[in-house]
Amino acid sequence: MNKHQQSGMTTLLITSMLLIVALLFSLASYKNLFYQIKRTQNEVLARQAHWAAEGGLECGFAAIQDAGSISGASSTFISCENELNLVDVDVGVDNYINSEYDNISNKLVKKKIKLSSRLAGAIQARSDLKLIGDYDIYPDVENINSNGQYECVSIRYSNNFFYEKSGNEELEVLDPEKNGPYADFPDNAECIVKTHLKSSESTEYPTENIKSDFVFDDKFDPFESALGAPRSEVAQIRKEFTEISGSKTECDKNIKEAFLTSNKVWVKGHCDLMGGTEVVKLNKTPRLLVIENGIFATFGAVEFYGTLYHLYTNPIVDITNDWSDMSSGNTLGSDDKKKTVYYQAGAFVPVGGLILDSPGGLSVFRSSMSFHFQGDANPSENSKISWIQGSWHDFEYQKNKRL
Questions:
Q1: How do residues 106-130 score in pLDDT, each as one tens digit?
Q2: Facing residues of 354 across strands?
Q3: What are phi and psi of 203, to 5 degrees?
Q4: Which strand (E) or helix (H) includes residue 69?
């Protein structure tokens, strides 16, 4: 065999070996490519499962909003399941909406809801708050625990709270009313804790007698929760109301006449409701009454089926002179008149909630009354639930089945 023939064989052998090596590398890369394709398909299926399950959350949330309560919506969750091919949509303990998809890939997502989008509290006070006398409070609620008991909110306050008694007077928080905090609220529902004061108390010298249903929150601002827009838009909000001027002699009559044409009335200036004999004649329709930058006073035993929002933005230094000609203030002490912007000497009960948004002022109750809170008495109450921010638990609750 000559030299040229041997050279050709060597070239052919080397070329063949290079081709074999290249083929091996190609096969190896194809194996990795097939793995990546399979993994991508799994990720696509997992994301499809995730979005289907998340759609179940939104469907369940919309059903509850439409029904106005969790119990009223539960029978409609099956339509969410059928539409999205879900295994289950329901509301579990601690108000978590659960949504599970189980078709090739499995996904369970949960998100927590609040029972109401409004700020909870039968009475909400940014002023100092003083209660004198005998009181029964049927509270608002905020959440429910795994035992089916509710986190009740009787009073939410950001400054000082005082309770003064004499004789056999007491302040007692009872369980919420049926249909009280919201429509279809169950009968015999119980609060986790309830305050019961049998002696005078003050947050200046707090005791264990004031329970957690009295919520101290020095940062809370009820404005947007109650009126649906930030404080910067107060002029625009006022246009949605029937606006009237305050009166120290005919406020009761003027409010009643305004409510005959609108369920939202805005009073600018002082308002002495006196006995409230005109307001009590109104039929049982949800109403919202705002008193802006004026003293509000009354001595009548009146149940007002609505919400009273007392808004004070003017500086409160010494307003004693503003109490002149306010007949409802006859039993208010001279020292208290210096900064009291709200005073009731009778059982005036706005069942839709009482909001005392008057920082630097004092709100005084000298009464014997039962405050039966009913959330539906507020005409601005459009939504009963909202998502709790930061309640997603994607990684904790998901379980993905890989192919």
A1: 888 888 876 656 789 999 999 999 9
A2: 123, 308
A3: -75, -10
A4: none
